[in-house]
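Possible regression after last week's pipeline update?

I re-ran a chain I had predicted before the update to compare outputs. Posting the input and the new output here so someone can diff against the archived version. Not blocking, just want to make sure nothing changed silently.
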Amino acid sequence: MNILHICSYYNSSGIYAEMNSAYQRAGIPCTFYVPLRASQKRNRPEANVKESVCFTGMDRFFFHHKHRKILKDFYSQIGGIEGYSLLHAHSLFSNGYIAYRLKQAHNIPYITAVRDTDMNTFFKKMPHLRSLGVKILRDACAVVFLSEAYRDELLARYVPAGDREAIRKKSHVIPNGINAFWLEHKAYDRPLPEKDKIRIVFAGSIDRRKNPLATAEACRLLMQRGYTVTFTAVGRVGSQGIYNTLLKKPFVRTVSHMSKEELCSLYREQDLFVMPSITETFGLVYAEAMTQGLPVIYTKGQGFDRQFEEGTVGYHVDCRNPREIADRILDCMKNYATLSKNCCTFSERFNWDAIAQEYKNLYEALNS
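New output (post-update):
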C-alpha cells in the first residue's frame, strides 16, 4: 500500500502537516504532491512532500487552463505513478479533478474529500462546473466529508437523485484532528460559572463569514434580560467595518493574536465558545475549545454540526438569529457541568493518531 496525496492546501493550512506526521507514526507510506501558485510561500522541505510552483494567481480564473498546467507539472514532479496503489485528493474540484484525470489515464483508484470551497464556491457559484463535480464524485472509490451535515447538503442540493444512494454508500465522515497540545492540556473539573454572569469567547477572523456581530447582538439581548455578559473576540481583522462596530460595544474585548498557550489560558477564564459562522468546513477552534471544557455554540448545517448528538457538547443555531443564539447560550449555562465534562471527554474524537488509524483502515479496505 502506497498512497499519493494531491493537496494544494498543504502550505495554507497546518492540518496537513499534522496529518502527515500522524501517518508516519501509523506506518502509512505516502507522498504529498503540493501544486502552488507563484505567490505562495514554500514550507521547509519534508522528505515525502513534493512542492511545485506551477500556476499563477490569474490562472485560478480559468479552471481547465490552470489544471492542465498542474497535470503537466504533476508528471514532471512525480514521474511514473505505477508504484502508488491509491490517490487521495484533498478537495473535490481542484485536487479531485487531477485524480479523476489520472484515473482515466492510469486506472488508479482515488478518494476525494469535499471542502467548504467545493460547496460554497464551486457548486454554489460556478454552475457550469457542477456536472464535472458530480462526475468526480461518481468515479471516486470513496468520498470523505468532515461532517454529516456537509454530506447531506451536497447530496440534497447538487447530486442528481439517481446518483445519491451510490455516493452515500461510499461516503465516510472523518473529522480533522487538532494539535496534540490541546489534548495534553485538558481542563477537567472546571468550576461552575457565576450565577447571572456569562463570559463568552470567540477565536477566528473578525469578518462576515465568522459572524461575530450575531454573537454580540445575542450578548446585548442577554444583558437586557439581566445578565452580565462579556465577549472576547480573538483573531485578525478580516473586515474593518465589523471590527469597528465591535469596538463600539463596551462589553466586547478584541485581541489580534494569541499563541496557543495564551489562548488556552484565556479559555480557562471563559464560560462558553460561541461562533455561529455563516459557512464552515469544520472548525478546529470548536474542538480546541472543547478540550478546555467550554461548551460550544455552532451553526446548524455547517461543518461542526452533528459531530455529536445535539445537546452533548453544546447546541447548533441559526447563524442569523441572535435571539436563538441567546436562548442556546442559556441552555448551555443551565446544563453546564454535564456539557463541560462531555467536552473534555469527547475531544479525544479529534486525536490525530486515532484519525490516522481511521484512514489506514479505509485505505486497507480499498486496497484489499
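Follow-up from reviewer: compared with the archived run. The radius of gyration is 21 Å. Marking as no regression found.
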